[in-house]
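Please review this one:
***
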Amino acid sequence: MKTYGYHRTSTNDQHLDRGVNEIQEYCKVNNLSLEKIFTDQQTGKNFNRPRYTIMKEDVLRAGDILLITEIDRLGRNKEDTLKELRYYKEKGIRVMILEIPTTLVDYSSLDNSMAKMIMETINNMLIEMYTVFAQVEIEKKEKRQREGIEAMKARGEWSKYGRPKAIDYDIFVEAYKRVLEGKKKPFECMRELGMTKATFYRYRKEYELGM
């Protein structure tokens, strides 16, 4: 059995070190030998993330423990996040989420089958509730962003944002959606559109602000 950590932040989030420190501190206090912490600085809308994919497909094995600080550090889409958690359960990989205390208890050692079933039910309910909160939070954030952009446009200030004019924005959106769907890698999208890395990420930022 090996213990691994995973922490994700958005590209403009400054709390990567804090999340890593929380995982390290938990392992220290609870005498868990931490093998490695995998990190990504990407959106939580999907699971097409390089370090996460390596961890999931090439590193984790049955009997291992995966530590996460908060459910939204894993993902912000409810259905996709629950699907990932089911995958780990089926593979015999235990996921422990620091913000959900019931996930930190090993119920497999309980002798009373009824008590075990009740605790697992409560645990599953809490996990689903937290995934709902994560999705609602990002939907509220996107709504505020859209309202902010509309207000800027109404004041005639949107042009000050400085949208790059390398290619038509709608063409970029069509291509970038294939990245979000996991059909293309970001570098493949850049190459297809003939964009530099800097321009690609400026377009991506505008897309995320305008959603």
